[in-house]
Specification:
Strand order of the largest sheet: 1-2-3
Shape: globular
Number of helices: 3
Largest sheet: 3 strands, parallel
Radius of gyration: 12 Å
Helix content: 40-55%
Distance between the termini: 9 Å
Strand content: 15-25%
Length: 85
């Protein structure tokens, strides 16, 4: 499984899109983690996630918020990872 890290606070860069297309061409399972979710208001996290899904055109794969610093949103990430372990 590929885990693709992006910054939730910013629109995807050209490099993000290149990496996304590369991952798509690999035909491997993947999830996108939108890191730094602790840097935005909790009430806005879902909106940011939906915006990122639209930017990438993701409707079939997992795109989850994440915070490596504050360790929030970890349970949903581990649930998804355990499907592949």
């Amino acid at each position: 499984m590929i885990i693709f890290l992006i910054d939730i606070r910013h629109k995807p860069t050209q490099n993000d899109f290149h990496m996304y297309h590369y991952i798509m061409s690999s035909n491997l399972p993947f999830m996108v983690l939108a890191n730094k979710a602790d840097k935005i208001a909790p009430t806005k996290v879902d909106t940011y996630i939906e915006d990122l899904k639209k930017e990438f055109g993701i409707s079939f794969s997992t795109l989850l918020p994440f915070s490596s610093e504050r360790k929030i949103y970890q349970s949903a990430v581990w649930e998804e990872l355990e499907k592949y372990i």
